[in-house]
Amino acid sequence: MGRRRRSRAQYLKGELIEREDFSEDLAAFKFRVDKQLPFIPGQYATIGFQVDEKIVQRPYSIVSSPHEPFMEVFVELVPEGATTPLFWELKLGDSVFIRDRLVGRFVLDTESGMTRHVMAGTVTGAAPYISIARTQKIEQEQGKASPHQILAIVGASLSWELGYYADELNELAAQEEWFTFVQTVSRPWEDPEWQGESGRAEDVIRKYGDHLGYDHTNAVVYACGHPQMIENAKAIWARARFPEERIKEEKFFVIKEE
Questions:
Q1: Which end of the chain, N or C, is less packed with Cβ atoms under 10 Å?
Q2: Which backbone phi and psi does 227 adopt, to 5 degrees?
Q3: Closest Cα to residue 187, out of 171, 199, 202?
């Protein structure tokens, strides 16, 4: 019993205060946490659910900024997963366990001296980039300088899979010169009203990077989400002469058999 109490002491309570379902298997969740937890945009939270006598937990990249009074995550349902089906059972007012340490190394590179950043993601892989962009926007409003230029390229099968995050990122791009957002759809034949870019995220990273002047002499590149996209993007950037230390990656899940 003592071990269980000490283990539980590592967690805070997160109360669900808002939920938005974008599709049957994609949703955004906002939690009110017992206390504000410090973190660097791009880091992740370990979120757990009580199953019998155990807490089953998994890491989730944080969408919200550390300046916001809630914790937000963007989740894709994996029917056979240990925790994502439990998210889908949540109702407003329900609680989850959140580890009291927020960690991760997939953060904005401020050590290389580069001020340009190309961020490629697939669906929920947009989460750390949204946190980074929100934070820079908030800090700019607080009077801090915004030295970093960001090109965010996010791929999805269908345009609505990004839900209101697409609107947020498009609005930010329209407002701020330092931020450019490209959404691309890989199944445009199933999304006939979509008029934007088509293809996977890695299909267009050179097109937009080259056009806007983000290259191996001045930029850091990031890939987050589907492991196959990450491998493809890394190979493309390597051929474009980006050094290995300026190619960052964060895999979210295992490739499913089709």
A1: C
A2: -60, -30
A3: 199
- Beta-carbon contacts of 187 under 8 Å, excluding residues fewer than 6 positions away, are 157, 158
pTM for this entry? 0.93
Query: What tens-digit pLDDT sequence spans the chain (258 residues)?
Result: 344 444 677 999 999 999 999 999 999 999 999 999 999 999 999 999 999 889 999 999 999 999 999 999 999 999 999 999 999 999 999 999 999 999 999 999 999 999 999 999 999 999 999 999 999 999 999 999 878 999 999 999 999 999 999 999 999 999 999 999 999 999 999 999 999 999 999 999 999 999 999 999 999 999 999 999 999 999 999 999 999 999 999 987 544 433
Domains and CATH numbers, the chain: 2-99 (2.40.30.10), 116-251 (3.40.50.80)
Residues 87, 159 contacting (CB under 8 angstroms) = no
Report strand pairing: 149-156 vs 116-122: parallel
